[in-house]
Amino acid sequence: MTASGLFGATSPRLLNRLRSVPVDVIDLHDVAVDLLPSLATPRLHLALVRRPGAGTVLRLEEDERSVAVPLGDLADDMTRAGVASTAAGIEDALRSWVARRPVTDEAAATTGIAVLDWADAAETTVGWAVVVTRGELAVRWSPSPAARTVALHRIRSAATGRAHDVPVELRVEGPLALWSHPVPMLATAALVAPELLLHRVAGDGLVHPDMHVVITPHRPVVCTSPAVARRLAGQAGQPSVTLPWRSLSDLRWI
User: Fold this and answer.
1) What backbone phi and psi angles, to 5 degrees, belong to 68?
2) Containing domain of residue 28, as a range?
3) Can you tell me the distance from the alpha carbon of 157 to that of 159, in angstroms, rounded to the nearest whole number?
4) Which residues contact 89 (CB under 8 A, 6 or more apart)?
5) Of 72, 89, 106, 176, most Cβ neighbours within 10 A?
6) Distance between CA atoms of 130 and 106, rounded to whole angstroms?
7) What is the DSSP string of the chain?
8) Does 158 share its domain with 193?
9) Are residues 71 and 125 in the same domain?
């Protein structure tokens, strides 16, 4: 994940304005001392650990997951991401960093939702993944080494079931059916049931004999005819995958 991805989006204009004002590690330490106790839970432990001669480390532990990052490195990452070097800016970035922490196997098992995400670094293929929502974020789960095959199947099956209950909004505009959700990544949850998706689209007056789906993870999903889908994909300024609706059930888990 890029530095900006660790702390949420920062506008290019703001980034340019703040690039010459680095986040000070002492300011970050002061914010962390005040903020971290309010973010901790019975399962999530956050602590600042002083290492003699080596600076302070921010340690995060939750079930089988643990992360330890030197405060100096975290301050540098915030600076590269264009985080405002004010107390409020640092606090927002630190909240975002904690929210993007690795998802535990228990959280995936109890609240995970099946969505489509990029299956490769080049963003050329998609596959099914389990995500856990934290506020307006959807954080992807990577199974821990301790997760066995039976547990993987159980977690993924439960996540697929929850995806059926995600309230995805449908809007038909001309030849396009757009599926969206306030947490953008959850828009693809509608694709766990392609037949129901087509039924809802047809109920709103859009019928194609060979419906195609344009998928851009973290963005609304588009359903339309093959010709329009190809045109949209060609005009898009970002990677996308176009598939016939019948192919959705063949996508693998990642």
Assistant:
1) -135, 125
2) 3-99
3) 5
4) 83
5) 89
6) 12
7) --HHHHH----HHHHHHHTTSPPPHHHHHHHHHHHHHHH--SSEEEEEEEETTTEEEEEEEETTEEEEEEHHHHHHHHHHTT--SSHHHHHHHHHHHHHTSPPPHHHHHHH-EEEEEESSTTS--EEEEEEEEETTEEEE----TT--HHHHHHHHHHHHHHHTT---EEEEETTEEEEE-SSGGGGGGGGGSHHHHHHHHHHTT---TT-EEEE-TTS-EEEE-HHHHHHHHHH-SS--EEEEGGGGGGPPB-
8) no
9) no
Domain-ending residue, one of 163, 182, 206: 163
Co-location of 90 and 9 in the same domain:
yes
Whether residue 67 sits in one domain with residue 140 = no
Beta strand pairing call for 137-140 and 169-173 = unpaired
213 in the same domain as 153: no
Q: What is the pLDDT along the chain (254 residues), one digit of tens a residue?
A: 445 567 765 545 555 554 558 999 999 999 999 999 999 999 999 999 998 877 899 999 999 999 999 999 999 999 999 999 999 999 999 999 999 999 999 999 999 999 999 999 999 999 999 999 999 999 999 999 988 888 999 999 999 999 999 999 999 999 999 999 999 999 999 999 999 988 999 999 998 888 999 999 999 999 999 999 989 888 878 899 999 999 998 999 99
The count of C-alpha atoms lying within 13 angstroms of the C-alpha of 171, restricted to the half-sphere facing its C-beta, is: 8
Query: 60 with 6: CB under 8 angstroms?
Result: no
Query: What are the structure tokens assigned to 13, written together?
Result: 């204009």
| 75, 146: one domain | no
Other CB atoms within 10 Å distance of the CB of residue 172: 15
- Number of structural domains in the chain: 3
Measured distance CA(212)–CA(245) in Å, rounded: 5
